[in-house]
């Protein structure tokens, strides 16, 4: 907390409130409004929380104007090109990059937790054959609390840590079970001699009758996607995890809430929506021009999927990283080149259009992630599950940070009431 204060005056009454300023290491400072209501009788009104810091956090920093994303200080571009997903997980959870012993130990711990109880598989087999993977994933992650009640004491740091490791380790297994259930194929057991990412591709695409060995480009593309989606500070799903966890809810329930939030098309569901939009342009009478015109039409609820971001108002650095990976993968696998070409033409047309320029709407990470996932043969209804798997570490890092924050309280926003004033029930 700095010694600076901001004074707010109500011109009607002349009352003033003196509010402390909270300073971060970099980026905007904030006015601490916790005593505002007491001092002035006013709350603050901020639907969508665009101007409100809900917590302080040392995990991830974003400068939306300049397109900067740092995890524990390290730029996402450097992590995406030099690091591994598990190293980024360690960094997010512990604050520092691991040395080689810490890295090996962490990898071994995660590998020790990749299997799930057989009854979890049976539980998942109970879903309808065409259940959406996100419905299965959120329900199954919530159900994990019933399998691991030996370690859900949120006040015990060891319990919090083992739960973090379990979730990171088991998400690829659970995500692959969603896919296998939908394909009608048997669940595949994890292979601990493979890397985290290779194991995930094995879980997805190996069958008892045949081994699966992914190409280096496929492993790199998947690994990059995981790194780029690992955390993104107080986005909707992370804030949901914090809010759910703030009541003391167990970590599995809190992460399940985050998965449910991520499912929405304005958040993690966007990459699926991007592919639907591109397919529509390829397969129906829609053109790039008509699609852009619809997105600009205020009478049409349609939005150009994969464009715009609540915080990035210049460019999304994750989109820049992913574009190169997307190129390499399609060059090697010869994936859906016409679709990729269409995506590039759409991006070019949007970037040249005044409507999008004026509103600072640029392609976001999801614009390209769907094309990569399709090239990897991952079906569209699994796209958001991939995002959930990658983001699990971010959710847990924030959940853990919240539980060690001295200012931590249950989350409980205020409201401006606009309903009827007090009135009597007929005859009362
Ligand atoms: N297409 C057309 N117009 C748009 C779009 C879009 N994709 N995004 C924003 N706008 C317009 C919006 O209509 C508004 O115009 P006006 O000022 O004339 O009313 C202006 O731009 C500001 O929009 P907003 O709704 O105030 O912006 P927001 O910060 O509330 O919304 C967003 C951010 C990501 C929800 C939104 O841009 C959107 O719906 N994009 C498409 C969905 C998408 O790609 N989501 C993935 C986000 S990245 C993954 C992640 O980090 O979760």
- What is the number of E strands? 6
Strand order of the largest sheet: 1-2-3
Q: Mean pLDDT, nearest integer?
A: 93
Radius of gyration: 23 Å
Query: What characteristic shape results from the CA principal axes?
Result: globular
| Strand percent estimate | 5-15%
* Separation of the first and last Cα atoms: 53 Å
Low-confidence stretches: none
| Series of secondary-structure elements, N-terminal to C-terminal | EEEHEEEHHHHHHHHHHHHHHHHH
How many individual helices? 18
| Major sheet attributes | 3 strands, antiparallel
Query: Bound compounds, please?
Result: carboxymethyl coenzyme *A
Q: Which percent range fits the helix content?
A: 40-55%
* Structural classification: mainly alpha
Topology readout:
Elements: E1 5-9, E2 16-22, E3 30-31, H1 36-40, E4 60-63, E5 68-71, E6 74-75, H2 76-82, H3 85-94, H4 100-112, H5 118-125, H6 133-143, H7 157-183, H8 196-205, H9 216-228, H10 236-246, H11 251-262, H12 270-283, H13 288-296, H14 317-333, H15 337-351, H16 354-358, H17 365-375, H18 383-403
Helix pairs in contact: 2-9, 3-18, 4-7, 6-7, 6-11, 7-8, 7-18, 9-14, 9-17, 9-18, 10-11, 10-18, 11-18, 12-17, 14-17
The structure holds carboxymethyl coenzyme *A.
Carboxymethyl coenzyme *A (CMC) is lined by residues 232, 235, 266-268, 270, 295, 303-310, 359, 361, 364-366.
């Amino acid at each position: 907390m700095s010694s600076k204060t901001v004074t707010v005056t109500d011109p009607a009454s002349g009352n003033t409130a003196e509010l402390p300023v909270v300073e971060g290491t970099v980026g905007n400072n904030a006015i601490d409004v916790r005593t505002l209501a007491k001092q002035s009788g006013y709350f603050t009104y901020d639907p969508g929380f665009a101007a409100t810091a809900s917590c302080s956090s040392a995990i991830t920093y974003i400068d939306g104007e300049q397109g900067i994303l740092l995890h524990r200080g390290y730029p996402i571009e450097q992590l995406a090109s030099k690091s591994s997903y598990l190293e980024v997980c360690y960094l997010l959870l512990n604050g520092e990059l691991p040395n080689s012993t810490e890295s090996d130990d962490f990898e071994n711990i995660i590998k020790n937790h990749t299997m799930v109880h057989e009854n979890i598989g049976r539980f998942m087999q109970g879903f309808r054959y065409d259940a959406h993977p996100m419905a299965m994933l959120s329900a199954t992650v919530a159900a994990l609390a019933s399998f691991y009640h030996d370690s859900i004491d949120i006040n015990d740091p060891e319990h919090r840590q083992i739960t973090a490791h379990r979730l990171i380790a088991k998400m690829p297994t659970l995500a692959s079970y969603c896919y296998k259930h939908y394909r009608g194929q048997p669940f595949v057991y994890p292979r601990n001699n493979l890397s985290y990412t290779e194991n995930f591709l094995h879980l997805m695409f190996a069958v008892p009758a045949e081994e699966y060995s992914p190409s280096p480009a496929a492993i790199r593309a998947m690994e990059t996607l995981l790194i780029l989606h690992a955390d993104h500070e107080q986005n909707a799903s992370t804030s949901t995890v914090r809010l759910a966890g703030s009541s003391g809810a167990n970590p599995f329930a809190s992460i399940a809430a985050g998965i449910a939030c991520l499912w929405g098309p304005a958040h993690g569901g966007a990459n699926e929506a991007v592919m639907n939009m591109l397919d529509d342009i390829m397969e129906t009478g829609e053109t790039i021009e008509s699609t852009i015109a619809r997105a600009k039409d205020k009478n049409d609820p349609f939005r150009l999927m994969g464009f715009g971001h609540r915080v990035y108002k210049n460019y999304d650095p994750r989109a820049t990283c992913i574009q190169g990976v997307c190129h390499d993968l399609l060059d090697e696998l010869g994936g859906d080149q016409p679709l990729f070409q269409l995506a590039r033409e759409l991006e070019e047309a949007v970037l040249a259009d005044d409507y999008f320029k004026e509103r600072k709407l640029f392609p976001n990470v999801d614009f390209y992630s769907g094309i990569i996932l399709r090239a990897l043969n991952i079906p569209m209804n699994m796209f958001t599950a991939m995002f959930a798997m990658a983001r699990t570490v971010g959710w847990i890092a924030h959940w853990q940070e919240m539980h060690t924050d001295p200012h931590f309280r249950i989350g409980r926003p205020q409201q401006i009431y606009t309903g009827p004033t007090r009135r009597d029930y007929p005859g009362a």
